[in-house]
Amino acid sequence: MAHTPTSTSRSLAIDEGKLNAFMGGFVRDLGAVMHAATIVVGDKLGLYKALADQPLSAEDLALRTETDARYVREWLSAQAASGYVDYDAASDRFSLNDEQAFALTVEGGPAFIPGAFEIAVAQFKAIPKMISAFRTGLGLGWHEHDAALFHGTERFFRPGYAANLVSSWIPALDGLHERLASGAEVADVGCGHGASTLIMAEAYPKSTFVGFDYHEASIAHATQAAERAGLAGRVRFEVASAKAYPGRAYDLVTMFDCLHDMGDPAGAAIHVRQSLKPDGHWLIVEPYANDRLEDNLNPVGRIFYSASTFICTPASRAQEVGACLGAQAGEARMNTVVERGGFTRFRRATETPFNLVYEARP
Ligand SMILES: C[S@@+](CC[C@H](N)C(=O)[O-])C[C@H]1O[C@@H](n2cnc3c(N)ncnc32)[C@H](O)[C@@H]1O
């Protein structure tokens, strides 16, 4: 054990084994961070999709994607070193195995991951603004981020909704599937690009849906998506905040991954209560979290706390009240928010490794 002076007055007693373990983690982490940028480029240029068709040399992949062969070779080497493509040294060709192709090229599939790295791009772009926010304590609104955040969120979250929302989350709420199947009025609040709204609308043709979000650009995007999906007759999108959206008799209000982003979640809960029929449902989907910090110190908590530092917490701080629940709010804190809205029943209806799904009733 060596004693090393630091730039502070503290003298450090370095345990070499612990330092080596820490530095091993650093090598893994730095590799992941540097690799993230190459994933975004490969996704945007269609490199993964072209490679999914058949094993290719760097030159052939470049030809098919109209890109530069030398850059593509370096990119492929980075992918192979990261385990994102397979490399056959004998033929000097690269390929995607079935699992890699599933996760990297099946847009909307349950394992599609490139959207997540667009969120990381937005985080990096927000560094100057966040340095300032740490000093001033001011917020950084959702709308003030790079557009990569809005697109990345839609692309990363939609697979989870496609895999779970209709098949397990809605059926986990008391009688909700039957109600939607026979025709219900639904408000999807904080809908973003409307991925969840459109998935529900496709599944329940007798119901009508309105998506609300305060972010104008997201509402414009969602409106176009509804038109493209041929759902414009039953689905509409409007700019409105969670405390002021119109309507007084919804059968169902949904909030996907947005309640903790709001400045005044309890105020929103009061408005949800007023907008529901007396026997209505409030479906709240939140990031998976335990109640205590020490129980969230794991790989999933790591992702959520990091995103929350840059995105969710400053988004809430930018709005009135600025409750700053954070992405790891947990069930107990959500229960308090819902109770303050005047709801009498609240329960965890179901969960996935990434999400908690709550049901609240008036
Ligand atoms: C993490 S995104 C989730 C978007 C969408 N629900 C999804 O799951 O893809 C959070 C969304 O909440 C919206 N939002 C935040 N505060 C809001 C508020 N007070 N009223 C309405 N929308 C809000 C943001 O504009 C953003 O679209």
End-to-end span in angstroms? 62 Å
Number of helices: 14
Helical proportion, percent range:
40-55%
Rg (CA only)? 23 Å
Biggest sheet character: 7 strands, mixed
Give the strand line-up of the largest sheet. Answer: 7-6-5-8-9-11-10
Which structural class do the helices and strands define?
alpha/beta
What small molecules does the structure contain? S-adenosylmethionine
Order of helices and strands: EEHHHHEEHHHHHEHEHEEHEHHEE
Estimated share of beta-strand residues: 15-25%
Q: Got a strand count?
A: 11
Shape: globular
Mean pLDDT: 96
- State the low-pLDDT regions, or none: none
Characterise the protein shown here.
By secondary structure, the protein is α/β, with parallel strands linked by helices. Helices cover 50% and strands 17% of the residues. The strands form 3 sheets. Strands 7-6-5-8-9-11-10 form a 7-stranded mixed beta sheet, with helices on both faces. A two-stranded antiparallel sheet has the order 1-2. Strands 3-4 form a two-stranded antiparallel ribbon. β3 and β4 form a beta hairpin. The termini are far apart. The relative contact order is 0.09. The chain binds S-adenosylmethionine (SAM). S-adenosylmethionine binds next to α8 and α10. The site of S-adenosylmethionine has 22 residues, from α8 and α10.
